[in-house]
Amino acid sequence: MEALRNAATRLLAALRGGGTLALAITLLGAIGAVLVFVAEFTTIFAVDVLTSGTCEEIADPASRDACHSSGFEQHGGAFILLGLLALVMALGAGRGRSRPAAVALLAVGAVVLGFAFIRDLPKTNDTGIIGIQYEEAKAAPRSGFTIEIAGGVLCVVAGGMGLAAAGRGARPPVSRPRSGSRRDRAESADPA
Length: 192
Prior knowledge:
By secondary structure, the protein is mainly alpha-helical. The chain contains nine helices and three strands.
C-alpha cells in the first residue's frame, strides 16, 4: 500500500512539474481514456416494448439478447485496448510533450468517434428482430453511447491541445554540455 501511495505521489509531483497546460492535457486525456474503457462495459442501446412490460420479459428466449447491446457486443473489446492506449498517450502528450503521443491520442479519439457515429448511431434506432415481433418496439441510445462520445471528444481535445503545445515550442529546455566536457575540449583542440 505504501508503494502505491509513493508512486501516486511521484506521479502527481511529475504532473505538477510540467505546468498547467501539461496537467490539463494529461487529465483530459486520462479522463477520456477511462470513459472509452468504461463504454465497453455499458449498454450502448436498448429496445423497449411500449405496450406490455420490458423487452426481456416478453421476448422469447431466443430474442432476449436483441433487447440491448453492450459496448463489448458492438466493438468486440476494441475500446478496452483503445482506452489503455489513450491513457499512455495522454501521459506522453501531457507530461512528455510528445508530438507523436498527441497525434496518437487525437487518432484514438477520432476512431472512437468514428465507431460512435458510423457504427453505433444507426443501430440506436434499429429495433431489429424485436421490432419485427412487436409493433410497439422502440430502440433508443443508452448511457454507453453518451460515454463513448464524451471519451472520444476528450481524447480529441487533449490530443489537439498536445499538438498545439508541441507546435509552439513548449518543450522543456534541453540540457547543454558543461564547459570543460570532452566535446568542448575536442572542439578547442581542433583549430580548423
